[in-house]
# Entry
Amino acid sequence: MLVPLAELSGAALFYATAGAGPPVLLIGGTGGDLRRAPGPFAWPGAERFSLLAFDHRDQGRSRSHAAQQPTMADFADDALGLVDELGWDRFDVVGYSFGGMVAQELALRAGDRVRRLVLVSTSSGGEGCISYPLHELYELEPAARTAALVELLDTRATTQPKLAAAIASYLTVDGGGLAANEAPPLGLVRQLEARRQHDTSARLHELQMPTLVAVGRFDGIATPATSEALARALPHAQLRVFEGGHAVLLQDPAAWPAIANFLVDAD
# Structure
């Protein structure tokens, strides 16, 4: 699978494409990297779509062209610029966690170009709909940071030692810098700051496309209550609660098929 580079006004983005069918933009979360397994196309039903995924600026192999702190709108402009680069007119969007925040900003900019919108494990910001402030974890010592993050990723970890150990092992080996002992890399710092400032709550009524809000029942970062608030604020949204934590797309085998079925529903 070729991973080409798109030179955009704000960033140089590495991206990947796969499949054939209706176009779907996949926007990944904090600390994402296309080189990390499982890849963005390894889910049931992926072959039914033309998929596009990318590394955010200053993550993976993508780089920013600017020295200043990017806003969530800048991340959205990156994604929209990539879609334009590939010549897509109308398309669906699936945004996970930080990517769900980016997806909201993108949909506000793209309007009816976004046919259907899927927001997974995410929030709008604003009163009553804020994800856990991950930037505050870096005020903790590394061991305490990892322990807190494990319980946030899946609230069952407080009573299930094997689950807690598995999550901690993943974070230690391949956690995208969130639980690293050293200071966070600049790209991660910039993502967390954009996340901290994120607030689309007063503009969600503008999003008129059908929307699926998906959340894990045991997510301590973007909680079910937060997702319920997000779905209520969107004019044409439905809420699905799946059996998992923040990584619900990996934990509940029913999650991706439900998303795929939502995307292929007729307008």
Q: What stands out?
A: The helical segments are 72-85, 98-110, 142-153, 161-174, 186-197, 224-233, 248-251, 255-264. The chain has eight helices and nine strands. The radius of gyration is 17 Å.
